[in-house]
Write a structure and sequence with these properties.
The complex is a heterotrimer of chains A (about 375), B (about 750) and C (about 160). Chain A is mostly helical and about 375 residues long. Chain A has 18 helices and six strands. Chain A has a two-stranded antiparallel sheet with strand order 1-2. In chain A, strands 3-4 form a two-stranded antiparallel ribbon. In chain A, a hairpin with a 2-residue loop joins β1 and β2. In chain A, α2 packs across α6 and α8 packs across α12. In chain B, about 30% of the residues lie in helices and about 20% in strands. Chain B is built from 19 helices and 24 strands. In chain B, α17 links the parallel β23 and β24. Chain B is globular, with a radius of gyration of 27 Å. Chain C is α+β, with helices and mostly antiparallel strands and about 160 residues long. In chain C, the strands form two sheets. Chain C has a three-stranded antiparallel beta sheet with strand order 4-3-5, with helices on one face. In chain C, α2 packs across α5. The longest helix of chain C is centred in the C-terminal third of the chain and has 15 residues. Chain C is globular and about 40 Å long. The termini of chain C are far apart. Classes of the chains: A mainly alpha (about 375), B alpha+beta (about 750), C alpha+beta (about 160). At the B-C interface, α6, α8 and α17 of B face α1, α2, α3 and α5 of C.
């Protein structure tokens, strides 16, 4: 039910709201603040952390269950300090350690945007984190570095814009940088590859597994569309990011792309080790299950990414490829985008391992370790859900 | 199937002509029969009773229809009609559907006309056959026919005297011309008609029986696949058949101009060889239309005809105008088109799931250069077609391939991307409405314009088949023509059914087709009803009237009024409680303005932030005239609603400068289970004794408009462009673009 | 030669081991129920069960299926003696053209064998991979609910 105060006009300009919409898209906010099948921004999405599940909060302007009673100062404190108006700490699954670098105008624009969303009354389930909230203060002392980011005078404005967005709202390194035992970023391994929701977040620095070095334009296309024939189709947690970025200002996405690509600093990786021997069985499975689409290339009728170029095949572990094969890549139900079916249930663990090992040879990479063990682990994880 | 063909049967018959005269008892004979003695339904074209009904000496009853079972349940409904009128149990009747060697030529199974054409013919033929049998018995026993009774396949007289139909039919007693009037069984005595009858085709379909042309397995049958150009209009520059010819199981590569096919012993071998051929074909590209198809259509020349002109002074009250657009839509059969053909001893037989076996025969005969008499086309069920899809084309493909492999039955099935990119689409359309109200809130004047390509390029000639367009000496298709009123094509349902004193409706027929198009379920009625019924809502809002009441105040036809009231009542229109973000919508139409009446009321929830539309309850009221199989009507109506919601919410054919990009279900998404309505209720208003009005195409227009109206009610966004994507909903709500 | 167990019967199939199961079912074994719809795992018309799981038979090569019992609609019963899923679909008249229906039945069968008490919402979610173009969805849902009752021994 809406009350009069919920719907009362607030003093925000359209330009400010639109600026906030763009920033919210870059921040991927809606993903963690929306439950499966729920109303956007009404919270309830469980973010799995090594310490338990943290639920995205209701950030619609509902006064009871959302943030309708928050002032701009409350909102700013939440983003910069990770602290609620009542003074309790949020868990760092809420990426305030990045948002802290946002400038005042951007925070005001985001505030304008969320405060003009449809108020939704929706209480969020309790978190199952075993860490007491006061412990977060210790975490903050170590990992929260407040203040504006230093700009790099040797780089142009576009790169600096990308740097600002990547390090604040877009919070790329949240997933793409490895974490220490306390869940803090290992800054000396910046963008060296991390983990997100059971997926490998590929390295974006010199450790990148990409068979071909990325260009800014390829990365821009990837971030906007999730699909670049020479590299990858977005999957897993990155799909939501791309879906959001498709609504962001192209210039900002290009800036992000430029910044990220500048971190890669590597040459082509095609002349890799001699490909490992493939099993005939794996090849049969590939021919029957994958070849119809993947052998013909994206340009062909109904064709798909050629796996020799695919990052998922080139990554250090088969983790992502297992996810992709088991759960497929299915676009939002109303969007006309490429599709890969879920093969869950189609193969025994042994067969899936053979199939994965075979695809690895298409990437001309050394064989993965213990593929079967990883397949089994992934299946147990999938069954646990 | 009997080995005796109709030709043989007729040839062997004496021409015993019986004069008979019957007192009509029912009204279902149809309006036509009362007007100038024209025979009802398809009897007007095939007047001999034995064209429709044959009774064997053993009493077996076979009923022939020129219509095709397309999954709409027509076989069951026709069997019900025959069993009712012949006074036999339902199971006693065997149906034979469209077969050029056996059945009457009833043209296409389309336009929701099957019960009107074939149902009416069989109803009257069966009633007259029964009366003839009674007359035979009366003559045999020298008793007045009025003292005899037909029951359970026999005529019964006083004192236990009886004779089975098989005994009575000796000679050529049924080879007589039908009369204009029939003594049909009065509706109150119905045992079979009007009762929900389980469909005869369903048991095989749910147990793995042979149910489709796809399941046909003839001795020695081989499998073919075609290779289609990457885009319409492309021509083959070079083809290296070497690799494909050497692949396991490959029997033959067929090439004729840009038509390519490969035949193999096993189906998967044919698929693999087809892929190899594809990789070794080089094509000369053809042109693709510009992306903004509606702007492009507006630049093309049109032939304009005013189909309603009621002159007068325009109203002085508020006025309103709006433009509506519909993209190309696909038929999108779940099973790609398939056909089996056999050329043997100089005769060609084609088994096809097309909608018209006689027109297909003509097209195939021209394509392969055989006289029509040497070609037989037999209908077998396929995956639902919803109009002119790839079925006929596949028949042409199979025929052409079979001609090069005499004596071998050839089965060809298309691949998914071939179906998606080569079927003829439902045309993109534009419509414009303008109206003024008078001071009482009545519509004072009305102007409507609709722009469309043709809605039928059905074969009947080789130029209408894909193969006919691809062969080295291509057949030129006839110039496209509009389907005339009152049925109409692009202008089907363009004339308002509502009382408007001043009105002008203009149909702008665009001959040039940027993409190949043809009949898709409901033709232009889908667009026109969507436009008119959206516009009626817009006018109701302008008049500050309830949308249902606003419609009622402009309706005169009592059956229309009944349907509108029934849908509103069934839905709970008046008591509707609007939760935040939810809304209700209503729409009504009489299909073609002369067939079934249908009203749809539904509720939606619009997620403001995402623009997502979620459909809740749907209530549909339907008057299809006399209801033969009420559950069949419900099934068709439920399906029509879901299909229309899918078109309207999700679907648009897309392309780039090289090809159709809607190549599969990923690139042309349709509605899936989690997003279909919460419930659909269909209320069938039975009209016993009234003419059959058909059902299959009545719901698509009203469902689309009811959706548009409900979305507006929920969030104030008036969507006039199909499909209603999230982006369009958000744009219409005036919200900034966001995630 | 590949050895498969189909509907309780062991068969030796002489086909390229990379051949998707669907072609073997239809061409080598003469079974009608599983249908070719897209060959891409987008429509579910080819759905059968293997080792208790619903799979796209158009995408799983026979070399992945040795030792995994395969069940198709033919294995659920016959016209004369229909199984509960078949009986439910007939009762609900849950077909128009019916081309998608065997795939629907097998996906529903796999769900109910694992989760006999699946909720209506779970049935909708589970059937998402399967497309129906005729719009028979409401009846299919009713049929699956009826099959649940019949499987529990209800009448």
């Amino acid at each position: 039910m809406q009350s009069a105060s919920d719907t009362a006009p607030r003093p925000f300009s359209t330009a400010q709201i639109e600026r906030g919409a763009n920033l919210a898209a870059i921040g991927n906010c809606v993903t963690c603040h929306t439950a499966h099948g729920g109303k956007p921004y009404a919270g309830g999405y469980p973010v799995q952390t090594p310490f338990g599940a943290v639920h995205g909060t209701n950030i619609t302007p509902d006064r009871e269950t959302g943030i309708g009673s928050w002032s701009l100062a409350d909102f700013t404190r939440a983003l910069r300090e990770g602290m609620s108006p009542e003074g309790h700490h949020y868990y760092p699954a809420f990426p305030y350690a990045y948002f802290t670098h946002l400038d005042d105008d951007d925070i005001a624009a985001l505030y304008a945007f969320v405060m003009t969303r449809e108020p939704v009354r929706a209480a969020v389930p309790a978190n199952s984190v075993l860490v007491p909230r006061f412990a977060v203060a210790i975490w903050n002392a170590r990992y929260l570095h407040r203040g504006a980011l230093a700009s790099d005078a040797s780089r142009d404005a576009g790169w600096n814009r990308g740097h600002y967005l990547a390090e604040s709202l877009a919070h790329c390194s949240e997933c793409h940088t490895p974490r220490d035992k306390l869940g803090g970023e290992k800054r000396n391994e910046y963008l060296a590859g991390g983990e997100a929701g059971g997926w490998e977040a590929p390295a974006l620095n010199q450790n990148s597994s990409s068979p071909q070095p990325w260009t800014s334009s390829a990365m821009g296309q990837y971030l906007r569309t999730g699909l670049v024939d020479e590299h990858a189709i977005s999957a897993g947690p990155m799909r939501g990011v791309v879906e959001n970025l498709s609504h962001a200002k192209p210039a900002d996405v290009d800036a992000l792309a430029r910044y990220i690509v500048s971190m890669e600093r590597k040459g082509p990786d095609m002349a890799n080790a001699a490909p490992p021997a493939a099993s005939a069985h794996g090849e049969e499975l590939y021919a029957g299950a994958c070849g119809e689409c993947h052998d013909r290339g994206r340009a062909a009728e109904g064709g798909a990414l050629q796996l020799g170029k695919a990052i998922a095949v080139a990554l250090p572990t088969p983790k992502n490829l297992i996810h992709i094969v088991q759960d497929g890549i299915t676009p939002r139900e109303d969007s006309a985008q490429p599709w890969m079916p879920a093969f869950r249930g189609s193969f025994t663990d042994e067969d899936l391992a053979d199939l994965l090992a075979y695809t690895r040879t298409l990437g001309r990479k050394p064989a993965w370790n213990d593929v079967q063990g990883q397949v089994r682990a992934a299946r147990r994880e999938g069954e646990g859900k | 199937m009997s080995a005796v063909t109709r030709r043989e049967f007729i040839a062997g018959s004496g021409m015993l002509m019986l004069a008979f005269s019957l007192a009509p008892r029912g009204a279902q004979a149809g309006e036509a029969s009362h007007a100038g003695g024209k025979l009802p339904g398809s009897l007007s074209k095939f007047p001999y009773l034995d064209s429709w009904i044959r009774i064997g000496a053993d009493g077996s009853i076979t009923v022939f229809t020129g219509k095709c079972e397309l999954g709409q349940g027509v076989r069951t409904a026709l069997q019900q009609i025959a069993a009712e009128q012949l006074m036999v149990p339902f199971e006693r009747v065997a149906m034979v559907t469209s077969d050029t060697a056996l059945t009457p030529n009833e043209g296409y199974t389309s336009g929701s006309n099957s019960l009107k054409d074939s149902g009416t013919a069989i109803l009257n033929a069966a009633a007259q056959v029964r009366e003839l049998l009674l007359a035979q018995a009366a003559r045999r026993w020298s008793l007045p026919a009025t003292e005899l009774e037909a029951r359970d396949g026999a005529v019964h007289g006083a004192g236990g005297r009886h004779a089975g139909y098989g005994e009575l039919v000796a000679g050529q007693v049924l080879h007589v011309e039908a009369q204009a009037l029939s003594s049909v069984v009065p509706p109150r005595e119905h045992r079979v008609m009007g009762k929900s009858q389980p469909r005869v085709d369903i048991p095989a379909k749910v147990t793995g029986g042979e149910a489709y042309v796809h399941d046909l397995r003839l001795p020695g049958m081989v499998h073919a696949r075609v290779v289609r150009p990457p885009q319409p209009g492309a021509t083959l520059r070079a083809l290296d058949t070497g690799a494909a010819s050497r692949m396991p199981g490959v029997l033959k590569v067929v090439r004729d101009g840009s038509f390519i096919a490969v035949v193999a012993g096993k189906e998967f071998q044919a698929v693999q060889a087809m892929r190899a051929l594809q990789d070794h074909a080089q094509w000369e590209a053809g042109p693709m239309p510009p992306a903004d198809i509606h702007a492009y259509l507006a630049t093309l020349a049109s032939q304009d005809s005013v189909i309603l002109d009621r002159a007068g002074k325009a109203g002085e009250g508020a006025s309103h105008e709006a433009t509506y657009r519909r993209p190309y839509h696909m038929h999108g059969a779940i099973g790609p088109s398939c056909a089996v053909a056999l050329f043997k001893d100089g005769e060609l037989t084609v088994w096809s799931h097309g909608q018209g076996m006689f027109p297909l025969r003509a097209a195939v005969a021209e394509l392969v250069g055989l006289p029509k008499e040497k070609v037989r086309c037999i209908h077998r069920e396929g995956s639902g077609c919803y109009g002119h899809n790839g079925a006929d084309d596949a028949g042409g493909d199979a025929a052409l391939i079979a001609m090069s492999l005499p004596g071998r039955p050839v089965r060809v099935q298309w691949m998914r991307e071939q179906e998606h990119s080569w079927e003829p689409y439902g045309p993109a359309m534009i419509s414009k409405s303008r109206a003024t109200l008078d001071s009482q809130g009545q519509i004072a004047s009305w102007t409507y314009d609709v722009w469309s390509n043709t809605h039928s390029t059905r074969p009947g000639e080789a130029g209408g088949l894909a193969a006919g367009m691809l062969v080295a000496k291509p057949f030129k298709p006839s110039p496209p023509r509009p389907i005339p009123q009152p049925e109409g094509g692009g202008d089907r349902n363009a004339i308002p059914i509502y009382r408007v004193p001043v009105a002008k409706v203009t149909s702008h027929f665009i001959p040039q087709m940027p993409l190949r198009v043809s009949a898709l379920r409901a033709l232009g009625a889908y667009t026109n009803v969507f436009s008119l019924e959206s516009f009626m809502d817009e006018l109701a809002i302008l008049a500050k009237a309830d949308p249902v009441e606003f419609r009622l105040r402009h309706l005169d036809d009592p059956r229309a009024i009944d349907v509108v009231r029934a849908a509103a009542f069934g839905f709970g229109w008046d008591g509707f409680r609007r939760a935040p973000g939810t809304g209700r919508g209503f729409a009504f139409a009489r299909y073609k303005n002369l067939a079934a009446y249908c009203a749809v009321a539904l509720e939606v929830e619009v997620v403001r932030e995402s623009g997502e539309i979620r459909v809740g309850r749907v209530h549909c009221a339907m008057d299809s005239g006399e209801a033969v199989n009420p559950d069949g009507i419900r099934n068709q109506a439920e399906g029509g609603v879901v299909q229309s919601l899918s078109w309207t919410l999700r679907e648009a054919v897309t392309w780039d400068d090289k090809r159709i990009t809607s190549r599969d279900w990923a690139r042309y998404p349709m509605i899936r289970f989690p997003h279909v309505p919460r419930s659909i209720d269909v209320h069938v208003i039975d009209r016993p004794g009234q003419p059959f009005l058909g059902t299959g195409e009545a719901t698509q227009g009203p469902a689309a408009a009811a959706l548009a109206n409900a979305v507006f009610d929920a969030c104030g966004a008036r969507i006039r462009d199909i499909p209603f994507t999230r982006e369009r909903v958000k744009a219409a709500m005036g919200l900034p673009r966001s995630s | 030669m590949t050895s498969l167990e189909v509907n309780g019967r062991t068969v030796q199939v002489d086909a390229d081991p990379a051949t998707p199961l669907l072609y073997v079912l239809r061409n080598d074994l003469g079974l009608n129920a599983a249908k070719f719809g897209c060959g891409l795992g987008q429509c579910g018309a080819c759905t059968v069960m293997a080792g208790g799981e619903a799979i796209y038979s158009c995408l799983v090569p026979i070399s992945a299926l040795e030792g995994r019992p395969i069940v198709t609609v033919e294995g659920l019963g016959t016209q004369e003696h229909p199984g509960p899923m078949q009986e439910a679909f007939m009762e609900a008249q849950a077909a128009q053209c019916g081309y998608c229906i065997p795939g629907m039945m097998m996906r529903a069968q796999a769900l109910l064998e694992k989760k006999p008490g699946a909720s209506g919402e779970e049935v909708r979610e589970a059937l998402e991979p399967n497309l129906c173009r005729c719009g028979t969805h409401m009846r299919i849902l009713r049929a699956v609910a009826r099959a649940q009752e019949l499987m529990k021994g209800g009448r």
